[in-house]
Design a protein that fits this description.
about 60% helix; globular
Length: about 90
């Protein structure tokens, strides 16, 4: 796990505690600027990716920690929320 990913995870855990909505809140962050850790919001809002396959292709060479097997499904769900709302508008 990269140091910045670990730092963000620790901050989110300390902020949310044992909240059932941990994953929903975890994927709301977006880091921008130099050496930004790719986030779900960055993929949708800044890169305008429209499918999960495009997101996975973009991340394949430098996957963030949230692409691990235990978080990947929640990330996909969070990715699809704004994408689906964008296509139904």
């Amino acid at each position: 796990m990269k140091a910045i990913d670990l730092y963000l995870a620790i901050r989110m855990i300390s902020f949310l505690g044992d909240s059932e909505d941990y994953w929903k809140e975890y994927f709301n962050w977006m880091q921008m600027g130099f050496a930004a850790v790719p986030s779900v919001r960055l993929l949708v809002e800044q890169l305008n990716l429209s499918t999960w396959d495009e997101a996975c292709e973009y991340l394949k060479d430098r996957p963030p920690s949230w692409m691990s097997h235990d978080m990947k499904e929640e990330a996909r769900k969070k990715f699809e929320e704004p994408v689906l709302s964008r296509t139904t508008s």
